[in-house]
Amino acid sequence: MMHKYKNSEAKNCLIDKHVVFIGDSRIRQLFYSFIKLINPQVKEEGIKHGNIPFEDKSASIKVDFLWYPEVNGSMRQRIKSWTEGSVAKPHIIVVGAATWSIKIHNGSNEALAQYKINITSIAPLLEKLAISSDVYWVLQDPVYEDMLSESRKMITNEKIDAYNEAAVRILNSSSRNSKAKVKVFSVSKLIAQETIMKSADGLHLPESSRDTNAMILMNVYCNKIMKPIDGSCCQPQPPLTLIQKIAFCFFTLSIIGYLIISLIHRNNYRKNKSCTDLESGEEKKPAISIPNVSTLEMLLHCFCKLGLIMTYFYLCDRANLFMKENKFYTHSSFFIPIAYILVLGVFYTENTKETKVLNREQTDEWKGWMQLVILIYHISGASTFLPVYMHIRVLVAAYLFQTGYGHFSYFWIKGDFGVYRVCQVLFRLNFLVVVLCIVMDRPYQFYYFVPLVTVWFMIIYATLAVWPQIIQKKANGNCLWHFGLLLKLICLLTCIYFLSYSQGAFEKIFSFWPLSKCFELNGNVYEWWFRWKLDRYVVFHGMLFAFIYLALQKRQMISEGKGDALFSNRVSNVLLFISIVSFLTYSIWASSCKNKTECNELHPSVSVVQILAFILIRNIPGYVRSVYSSFFAWFGKISLELFICQYHIWLAADTKGILVLIPGYPMFNVVVSTFIFVCVAHEISQITNDLAQIVVPKDNSTLLKRLLCIAGFFSGLHFFSAMQDQSRH
């Protein structure tokens, strides 16, 4: 993966550095592309056959081009001067030349022999410089022979290959020290093989190709300094942190413990299994039955599987074991898979068990197809296409809408505000993310969606649980309680409105310890404020919709029988027409967006239009409400795990790129990585459900003990994190 360095990043990397380019006109091209990464305003106005200096005084960066079109005594003398103690050595040296030697000597074999002699004399000097500086030898790019002028016809690709072969063979041949290696910059040659036919003269690369070469050169040098997550080349594997080492030991012990217990149970089973009576020839039953799986064994089994899965996560996105590649968006890479999963979803259509609005099968289906669309959006890099981005923002808002709808409905109908319910929800939402924060060394806020739904769940809980607790059973006895609940919702809306326009107040709330440890990213909570603000009203909309729907349902103002329209025919037709028009109007508006910032400002207020339109279109016709796609519903049940796991084992570099398990076969790679990714997400969902039963028991006294253990765990985690930060500083 290639990180695209901005001017500020390039300056930070090269601050107080001296860079030298030595060679002919093709190296001069690379020089200009390189300095434009530092200052895009630079004009290519230097002397053609002379030295060209460049300096950025703000960052104390010096970049020089030295005109030495041939590998000869003059070039050797210049390089030798840097090896002498009194002269300051450049930090980066980029050198390469050959085409002038071929041209001047008409491609003679004698010129090639002399070239070999000259490189042989220069190689030890370059290797000596490579001990303290970064030295790159640029291989010669191929030419487009049909476009070469008459004076350059002798520069053939056959000759260029011979010169390149000589350079590669001679350079580093005398060096035994791995640090004294001259780096052969061969990528330019590979790029030229694909793009040289677009050259203006057959010799020099088109501008886009040389800009790519300069960016790669910047990656080669700067990635180890700046450590960009999407620059997978040329940076060492990050060292294991103290917390990662402890996690590794824990999972290793869990695996060993589970294997030991499994072997003990297996031996006990063998001793107690049925055996044949030698006298009667009849089979006897064992006196002792097979013991039930103990809580300890289930725990170890879960952690054993989780340990193996986390090892795969680490190998995919932290170790330099698998390759990663950049995303390149095309309309076909996004819309063709969308059409394919749509056909699959329709094919697996079944009848629902119940026909209520937003029943369980329907919400699972809704989550499922939205998650699949979001996954395709991420892997195809469709965020660069603004209309698609705006529609995906609605899907994220729809998840939050369901959060508001689902949790409000539960508390309103059940009236269960107990600690058990809260702990169950928090555990299921956060378990995987907490483990990934430890194993992948990432902050909690990095997995922004989970903090978002967690905070909104707590807001919903606080809104309904605070005195006076108003639930459906109480409100049915007195209609005034409905007004009380509406008053609570209005207070909630007022708070949301205030915090969305008061960044300072929001940041003060979430900058207090220990909240700051959870919600800071890169030292501040701005990213968290931005994410929260982007969909600030939609959870409230979900709660309000649930309240109105349940009130209508209680008064039997809607018909939810199988095959029945939700309202009378006239009302249903009018609402259906309005919904379709609203849905299409929003899509037209989103597709006409020109400025992402302006559209994001409007999004929180208008996203609910398309969400409500979809709900009504999906539920008003009885025959549509009575069926669902089991294909989408299956994915909906593991949608949270799919959303989180994609960060590291389907995408790569923390979603910036694509994981490459099978290089050279992109389609086959996507099929294999997707299969593993979905299986892992499903397995993690099962592990989370199993652990939730153990970690969050229904018995209050046992639950209190577990909560104390969890508090101790997080205290220990904070202690080791503080030690880790201190050692880093």
From TrEMBL:
This is CAS1 domain containing 1. The keyword Cytoplasm does not apply. One of its GO terms (biological process) is carbohydrate metabolic process. Pfam families: Cas1_AcylT. It is found in: Membrane. InterPro entries: Cas1_AcylTrans_dom (IPR012419). Belongs to the PC-esterase family. CASD1 subfamily.
